[in-house]
Amino acid sequence: MKWIKLGDYAEALIHVITLGFGQRLSEWIAIDLLGRKSCGCCERKEWLNRLTDKSYNGKCNQIQL
Q1: For 46-53, which contacts have Cβ atoms below 8 Å and span 24 or more sequence positions?
Q2: CA–CA separation, 15 vs 63, rounded Å?
Q3: pTM for this structure?
Q4: Where are the domains of the chain?
């Protein structure tokens, strides 16, 4: 049985709410305004996916609905 991956659902929800500009917006805030290396989107998605699917392999840049 394949488990629900929370990170994929969170990414899809953010994608819908922000009309597809979620990652660009978060990168602008984190990198340009706050001076960080990345926005943390990939790390958040991987962490949430591993909560429900221990065999998650870490493919971060793919929205899977």
Answers
A1: 46/7, 47/7, 48/5, 48/6, 48/7, 48/10, 49/5, 49/6, 49/7, 49/8, 51/6, 52/3, 52/4, 52/5, 52/6, 53/2, 53/3, 53/5
A2: 9
A3: 0.74
A4: 6-52
pLDDT in tens, 30-54: 999 999 998 998 889 889 888 888 8
**Percentage of the chain modeled with pLDDT above 70:** 86
